């Protein structure tokens, strides 16, 4: 049993032990084999803040934005929106000179621990990424919105911020450029919905974390009404290498066939031989990730289904393992890449019970603001519980399918409910007999629920 | 249970709590933003957030007590009733489900005689579910206070709890 009494961080894992080079593993090559945090002295000895120095000395703010745009970097938080395009939405109007850069470090997506690893072990990589990004966006202040349970990450980030301040890398007149940037670590108080970028802004402002309507987008009206850019931890950690090594190098990282550029922290968990997290080029196949890195299933277990990137992505079958891990590659087999940390479902797991567990999570974490999500998700839990215990009624599967449809994309205020029903829809599609097995044979048929379109 | 949920005594924040909250106000453009941190400061000192603290925080920050209460009741890690000396947070997300977290929860429940959301009569432990702790390669995972444990097994729970008195 690993425990906090050992001197290794909980994020320690295979990412620390695979062979890594600066040319091929821009995010993780600086990780220590012993999983201790890389502090400023060691980070700088490993070329840390060289990209920031380059960005401040040689590049204009617009050139940094253009470099990130041309690199093809996409958001690593799960949605995959092009980072350069998001940055380009920030107003050109110089009179709107109070701008914020927020780092979304509210990592609560089930089966996701990539940002934890980066923040615990490489806090300066995030700070350097934010520093360069803030310079590009003319943001004078940044917040790292960190989930409260990441205690080690908070401690390490705070220490790294102090180190950077003392070294003149944060604060006033950074690197003699005349540019000021203040960075704060803000810890949250629970609730998955805080990871939605507009909910995160509300939470940072000290409000209930209900998502805001878009437009206006945060780039125009964000935290305290000011232009705001929200980027994920891993996204920001890509920025130093892109600026430091250039676009051509970055575009050469991914495997042929991948439309996404660079590397991605990918993982596999569940009853695989070697669960873990690795930095891999976009475009590796699910099979390579599953067999070569995760080592396949543990003895006595077989792979029944897998989910490519977090609770909000759909289930896939073993035959889909040949799909390439990038947004378009996973879209070809019918779901989203999400966070790229995959989960294996083994032959001992009943899909109805698993989905009941997942929908309990989504129902509990709904902010309750819009009706389909607040009422629809508990309804799905109720039906799934009945089916799980063999008390399902004829028509229950159709009710679930109706919920999948009526809580789908575009029908709720934010992406929470669509993410919640995506795995449910795919589970019914691929494993319908398991759901049918929970329908009571003695129950009298009931009229199917009529869903009325809004 | 000796603690009453409705306090009639006049509530005052300690000097330490007050100065910690006032320090937080400077980190944000608008002082309302300090409300969550203020609740966490009080909770750190007292284990939970008593009724009187809601109004006191509102007063320092300059927002209505109802807004502070709205925030306090929204976030799952702010406790509006007393909790035990140690809080056990069991990850109940899907990877831990596959890893057998339900047997870990049952084992804790049996040993402590409490359900999820409850506190032992001696005030030693409170048991809560929590969102994915980001320890999925070592599922099932749980936190006791600020420490995260991985690869927890139902029969290893007793030994784990021993260290917390």
From TrEMBL, chain A:
Organism domain of life: Bacteria
EC category name: translocase
One family name in Pfam for this protein: Complex1_51K
Enzyme Commission numbers on file: 7.1.1.-
Cofactors required: FMN; [4Fe-4S] cluster
Catalyzed reactions: a quinone + NADH + 5 H(+)(in) = a quinol + NAD(+) + 4 H(+)(out)
Keyword Heme: no
Keyword terms of this UniProt record: 4Fe-4S, Flavoprotein, FMN, Iron, Iron-sulfur, Metal-binding, NAD, Quinone, Translocase
Boundaries of every NADH-ubiquinone oxidoreductase 51kDa subunit iron-sulphur binding domain copy: 352-397
Biological role: NDH-1 shuttles electrons from NADH, via FMN and iron-sulfur (Fe-S) centers, to quinones in the respiratory chain.
Entry-linked NCBIfam families: nuoF_fam, PRK11278.1, PRK13596.1
PANTHER family registered for this protein in UniProt: NADH-QUINONE OXIDOREDUCTASE SUBUNIT F (PTHR43578:SF3)
Name under which the protein is recorded: NADH-quinone oxidoreductase subunit F
Organism of this sequence: Pseudomonas turukhanskensis
UniProtKB/TrEMBL annotation, chain B:
InterPro entries hit by this protein: NuoE-like (IPR002023), NuoE_dom (IPR042128), NuoE_N (IPR041921), Thioredoxin-like_sf (IPR036249)
Similarity field: Belongs to the complex I 24 kDa subunit family.
NCBIfam families in alphabetical order: nuoE_fam, PRK07539.1-2
Origin superkingdom: Bacteria
Catalytic activity, as annotated: a quinone + NADH + 5 H(+)(in) = a quinol + NAD(+) + 4 H(+)(out)
Cofactor note: Binds 1 [2Fe-2S] cluster.
A GO term, aspect molecular function: metal ion binding
List of residues binding [2Fe-2S] cluster: 91, 96, 132, 136
High-level lineage: Bacteria, Pseudomonadati, Pseudomonadota, Gammaproteobacteria, Pseudomonadales
Gene3D superfamilies in alphabetical order: Glutaredoxin, NADH-quinone oxidoreductase subunit E
Cofactor(s) for this UniProt protein: [2Fe-2S] cluster
Protein species of origin: Pseudomonas turukhanskensis
Protein name as catalogued: NADH-quinone oxidoreductase subunit E
Keywords recorded for this protein, A-Z: 2Fe-2S, Iron, Iron-sulfur, Metal-binding
The protein's assembly and partners: Composed of 13 different subunits. Subunits NuoCD, E, F, and G constitute the peripheral sector of the complex.
């Amino acid at each position: 049993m690993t425990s906090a009494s050992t001197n290794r961080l909980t994020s320690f894992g295979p990412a620390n032990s695979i062979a890594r080079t600066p040319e091929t593993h821009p995010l993780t090559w600086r990780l220590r084999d012993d999983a201790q945090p890389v502090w400023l002295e060691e980070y700088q000895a490993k070329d840390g803040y060289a990209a920031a120095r380059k960005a401040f000395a040689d590049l204009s703010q617009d050139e940094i934005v253009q470099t990130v745009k041309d690199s093809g970097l996409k958001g690593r938080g799960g949605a995959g929106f092009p980072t350069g395009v998001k940055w380009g939405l920030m107003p050109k109007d110089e009179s709107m000179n109070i701008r914020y850069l927020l780092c979304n470090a509210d990592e609560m997506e089930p089966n996701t621990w990539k940002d934890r690893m980066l923040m615990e072990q490489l806090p300066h990589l995030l700070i350097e990424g934010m520093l360069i990004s803030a310079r590009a966006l003319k943001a004078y202040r940044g917040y790292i919105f960190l989930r409260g349970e990441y205690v080690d990450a908070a401690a390490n980030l705070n220490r790294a911020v102090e180190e950077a301040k003392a070294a003149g890398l944060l604060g006033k007149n950074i690197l003699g450029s005349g540019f000021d940037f203040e960075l704060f670590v803000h810890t949250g108080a629970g609730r998955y919905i805080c990871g939605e970028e507009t909910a995160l802004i509300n939470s940072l402002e000290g409000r209930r974390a209900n998502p805001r309507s878009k437009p206006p987008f945060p780039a125009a009206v964000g935290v305290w009404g000011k232009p705001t850019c929200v980027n994920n931890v891993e996204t920001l950690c890509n920025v130093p290498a892109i600026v430091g090594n250039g676009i051509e190098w970055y575009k050469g990282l991914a495997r042929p066939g991948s439309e996404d550029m660079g590397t991605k922290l990918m993982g596999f968990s569940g009853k695989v031989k070697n669960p873990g997290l690795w930095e891999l080029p976009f475009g590796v196949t699910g099979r390579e990730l599953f067999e070569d890195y995760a080592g396949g299933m543990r003895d006595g277990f077989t792979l029944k289904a897998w989910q490519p990137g977090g609770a909000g992505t759909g289930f896939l079958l073993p035959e889909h393992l040949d799909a390439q891990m990038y947004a378009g590659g996973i879209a070809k087999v019918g779901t989203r890449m999400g966070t790229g940390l995959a989960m294996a479902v083994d032959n001992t797991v009943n899909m109805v019970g698993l989905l009941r567990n997942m929908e309990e999570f989504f129902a509990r974490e709904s902010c309750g603001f819009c009706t389909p999500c607040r009422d629809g998700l508990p309804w799905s839990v109720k039906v799934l519980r009945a089916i799980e215990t063999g008390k399902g009624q004829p028509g229950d599967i159709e009710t679930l399918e109706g919920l999948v449809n009526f809580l789908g994309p575009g029908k709720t205020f934010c992406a929470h409910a669509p993410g919640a029903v995506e795995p449910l829809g795919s589970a019914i599609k691929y494993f319908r007999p398991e759901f049918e097995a929970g329908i009571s044979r003695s129950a009298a048929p009931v009229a199917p629920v009529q869903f009325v379109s809004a | 249970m000796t603690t009453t949920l409705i306090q009639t005594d006049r509530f005052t924040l300690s000097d330490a709590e007050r100065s910690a909250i006032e320090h937080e106000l400077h980190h944000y453009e608008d002082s309302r933003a300090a409300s969550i941190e203020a609740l966490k400061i009080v909770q750190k000192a007292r284990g939970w957030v008593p009724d009187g603290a809601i109004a006191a925080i509102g007063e320092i920050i300059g927002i209505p007590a109802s807004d502070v209460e709205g925030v306090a009741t929204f976030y799952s890690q702010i406790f509006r009733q007393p909790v035990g000396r140690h809080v056990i947070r069991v990850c109940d997300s899907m990877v831990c489900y596959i890893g057998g977290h339900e047997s870990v929860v049952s084992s804790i429940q049996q040993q402590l005689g409490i359900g999820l959301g409850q506190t032992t009569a001696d005030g030693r432990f409170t048991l809560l579910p929590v969102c994915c702790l980001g320890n999925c390669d070592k599922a099932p995972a749980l936190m006791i206070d600020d420490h995260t444990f991985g690869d927890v097994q139902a029969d290893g729970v007793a030994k784990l709890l021993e260290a917390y008195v």
